[in-house]
Design goal:
Belongs to the peptidase M16 family. The chain is α+β, with helices and mostly antiparallel strands and 437 residues long. It is 44% helix and 18% strand. It has two domains: 24-228, Cytochrome Bc1 Complex, Chain A, domain 1 (2-Layer Sandwich); 251-433, Cytochrome Bc1 Complex, Chain A, domain 1 (2-Layer Sandwich).
């Protein structure tokens, strides 16, 4: 019995004991490119990545979808990498690569055996300096993006719910359109517009280069200078600063989705930037409400009352504003308004009562786990280093962000819910099956 107790106690030790501090070095090249290096020689693998500070919010409202389009277009080829050869080069050298776009940034990366580090640096410098942006590439990727939209949005059940929420939640800020954008806008765009977008945003002074893994720092710095140092600096990139008026009265909307049979209800609240302490507290609110089968919403509405077969709450953190969403898919004859009432009751409890000590302990364990897992491999570390530098302005959050979660009190969790999650401050969307004609 004594051995069992000792073993159990060992499992409950703070997970942070297992987390190693992520060491890194950062500096700027003369052309404004920010460089971050993280050395980890435990495995012969290296990640080369570039994050550009351009996303859907930087687009012309009449040309939405450009940032996501460039996620695809910049794989087309360069002056020294033939059309369609990018992926062939990566895979033939034992590597993998990918890219992704949000409203705030675009991220490209390769993972190679460490003896191909120079290849990864050369390829990313080619993408930055010598991209070939011609009509053939634009036409090719236009079809690729259209097919992606058909698969992931147009023909996907509930695929448009976030886009429809954004339209209602934001009236001025560019977060109001979907990251994938409008196919009509892309069709209408000229080649010159694509070339101008590239010249404006995909420049060294609007990017961060992260190299993480099995590397020699001195040799890596020399290679980076050789491949990136001569790339011309671009013009200063203007940053948008658009403020939304507060929502003071509930806004209601309806959307009909031809791909669903079960209706849904979504409530969305506009919340502060990911950089604020309040955004962290809202993450914790969502964890209490809907993270796992022991969460409040799941236990009440799925397990006990059997009013929903799916229910949840989550905080979408972004650079300028966030979105806090609650949603439910009713079970049986449950009415949408009854589902909303039940969800609201649980939100009110968060606003008026302190969460239990046990819930608070579970919160801390969850975020400790996330912290450890995010820093468990060089691919994740590279992404985190780039994101913390570019969107938060503090690279060392990779090591001390967990301290923010640790310091947030039960009282703060209650107060942030009380401040932002009120019916008169939200959008409510009924997401319904398409009506029969």
């Amino acid at each position: 019995m004594k051995k069992s107790i000792i073993y159990l106690a060992s499992l409950l030790l703070p997970i942070s004991i297992m987390a190693q501090k992520v060491t890194f070095e950062e500096y700027d090249l003369d052309n404004g490119l920010h460089v971050i290096l993280h050395q980890d020689n435990s495995a012969p693998v290296v990640t080369t990545s570039v994050m550009y500070h351009v996303g859907a919010k930087d687009e012309n409202p009449e040309r939405t979808g450009f940032a996501h389009f460039f996620e695809h277009l910049l794989f087309e080829g360069t002056q020294n990498i033939g059309k369609g050869k990018w992926f062939e080069i990566v895979t033939s050298n034992g590597g993998s690569n990918n890219a992704n776009t949000t409203d705030d940034r675009t991220y490209y990366y390769e993972v190679f055996p460490s003896n191909s580090l120079e290849l990864g640096l050369w390829m990313e410098s080619e993408r930055m300096l010598h991209p070939v942006i011609d009509q053939t590439g634009v036409d090719t990727q236009n079809e690729v993006v259209k097919e992606e939209k058909r698969l992931r949005v147009d023909n996907q059940p509930y695929g448009n719910f976030l886009a429809e929420i954004k339209k209602l939640l934001f009236t001025k800020h560019p977060y109001r359109w979907a990251t994938i954008g409008s196919m009509e806008h892309l069709d209408a765009a000229t080649l010159e517009e694509f070339q101008a977008f590239n010249k404006k945003y995909y420049v060294p002074n609007n990017a961060v280069l992260v190299v993480a893994g099995d590397l020699d720092v001195a040799k890596t710095k020399k290679m980076i200078q050789n491949y990136f140092g001569s790339i011309p600096k671009g013009a200063d990139v203007p940053r948008i600063s658009i403020k939304e008026e507060p929502i003071t009265k509930e806004i209601k909307g309806v959307y009909h989705d031809p791909n669903i049979q079960i209706p849904g209800i979504v409530a969305a609240y506009r919340t502060p930037s990911m950089k604020t302490r309040e955004a962290y507290a809202l993450n914790m609110v969502s964890t209490v409400l809907s993270d796992g089968k022991s969460s409040r919403l799941y236990k009440k509405l799925v397990d006990e009352k059997k009013m929903a077969f799916q229910v949840g709450a989550f905080n979408v953190s972004q650079e300028d504003y966030g979105m806090y969403l609650t949603f439910g898919l009713p079970l049986g004859d449950t009415k949408l308004e009854d589902l909303v009432k039940e969800i609201d009751e649980e939100v009110v409890k968060i606003q008026t009562e302190l969460i239990t000590e046990r819930e608070y302990e579970k919160l801390q364990n969850k975020y400790e786990n996330q912290f450890v897992n995010a820093n468990s491999g060089v691919e994740g570390i590279a992404n985190s280093l780039a994101r913390y530098y570019m969107l938060f302005g503090d690279t060392n959050l990779i090591n001390n962000e967990i301290d923010i979660y640790r310091s947030i009190t039960r009282e703060e969790i209650r107060e942030v819910a009380k401040k932002y999650l009120n019916p008169n401050q939200r959008v409510q969307l009924e997401y319904l099956p398409k009506k029969d004609k």
